[in-house]
Amino acid sequence: MGKRIGMEVAVAVAEAVGLCNIDMAAVYPITPQSHIAEHLSDLVANGQIDAEFVTVESEHSAMSAVIGASGAGARSYTATSSQGLMYMHELLPIASAMRLPITMAIANRAVSGPLNILNDHTDIMPQRDSGWISVFVENGQEAIDMSIMAFKIAEHKDVMLPVNVNIDGFQLTHMVEPFEMPSQEEVDAFLPPFVPHATLHPAKPVTMGAFAMSDYFTEIMKAKDEALLNSKKVILDVWDEWAKMFGRSYKPVETYKADDADVLMLTMGSMGETAQMAIDQLRGRGVKAGLVKLRLWRPFPHSEIKAVLKNVKKLIVTDRAISFGGPGGPVFSEIKSALYAEASRPLIYNYIFGLGGRDVAVGEFVGMVDKVLADTKNKAADTYEFWGVRE
Amino acid sequence: MALKTWKELPIGCVVSEPGSAGEYHTGSWRSQRPVWDDAKCIKCGICYVFCPEGCVQQGEDGFFKANLDYCKGCGICSHECWPRAIKMVEEG
């Protein structure tokens, strides 16, 4: 049986990954790294897990090393954030095109400039189109659960795609939280051994990552898109299986007090828990506000999003990144796109906040709902605003 | 060889047949072909040495020519040939 413990979330993620029988991890061991890599190196050095721990000279090399190891049939893991993730960027679409089921934790932190490295989502958003499965977690328990499930999803024969698990840097990775850590026996029962679709082996030579010209490139992109779209079924199955085994259920889109709401707020990541407290306060004074939490970012859960937003009049989409000179935040852009063909659509307000580690307190979420409800002429709808910016 | 549809591609486009790159005739990229004038050729072999595709071959008579299945028509052989024995001629 698993046991209930209190621990720093980043350390707990490393402990959880340590239960997953990984063969190797490759990381760049200095800033902007997190305790995930540090504690994983302790587990390897102390002989608690039997894995190769490769300290490379950059994140570009870290991703290259896990691509090579995964190609050789090793269960491979890495963790990074911020500038490190940006430095991996070139390799990310290669990992997914080669259909290598690598698993990566991203302790989401701001990208320069200016140099900051505190929590927001500006590191993951430029990686959106890399062809990876991408999930966002809300708390420490979810970070552990998703980190273990990521291996099973990635390595499923109908998926064979890399997965990144987004865990808000500092705001979540550095918190000490109570949670239930599954036992080794439970993880062994849940997670089957990795069976690669092909391996690099001298006895049976294959070529991975070969060149392709324009006569094949379109077909390869189509196959990759289909693979990512089709992964959703396996993601849902694995989450269901987890719920049956561990009693903790996860859905691509979750709601809180949303059924009768006049206004809904949508969050992704750790801000969901703060927003939930704001919803309780608003309900306490009779405001019909509710919350939508988006957990699955890629493949994007179009049908689920449409279903939960079908009857609401006003929607607040929160973003922790911005597409400069574009439509606003990336989540806002996605939600608008998902709802475009719907007969009935809410007015959508986009607040960009929590950038570079700026705290967003419960009262600010309450303020957003109040502001949107007071906008009776809908002047601020369908556009974006930097919440709390000094004018 | 018929081109595969997206559904027929192996997962991750893994190539399981070693040496199959030889089946890909890069000569189709060529817009000019090298033509040797054996009267000027001194059989020095500099064209053979410089060909980046390794597709210049020496015949039994000691003269050189390109394997047009793979020659991309880059013209390096012609540029390097100091007796000026190789001319680049438009294809088609």
Describe this structure in words.
The complex is a heterodimer of chains A (391) and B (92). With 391 residues, chain A is of the alpha/beta class. Chain A has two domains: 3-246, Rossmann fold (3-Layer(aba) Sandwich), CATH 3.40.50.970; 253-386, Rossmann fold (3-Layer(aba) Sandwich). Chain A is built from twelve helices and 15 strands. In chain A, strands 3-2-4-5-7-6-12 form a seven-stranded mixed sheet, sandwiched between helices. Chain A has a six-stranded mixed sheet with strand order 9-11-10-13-14-15, with helices on both faces. A two-stranded antiparallel sheet of chain A has the order 1-8. In chain A, strand 6 (133-136), helix 6 (140-155) and strand 7 form a beta-alpha-beta unit. The N and C termini of chain A lie far apart (54 Å). Chain B has a domain at 27-90: Alpha-Beta Plaits (2-Layer Sandwich). Chain B is built from two helices and four strands. A two-stranded antiparallel ribbon of chain B has the order 1-4. Chain B has a two-stranded antiparallel sheet with strand order 2-3. In chain B, strand 2 and strand 3 form a beta hairpin. The radius of gyration of chain B is 17 Å and the shape is elongated. The model of chain B has no long low-confidence stretch (mean pLDDT 95). Chains A and B meet through helix 8 of A and loops of B.
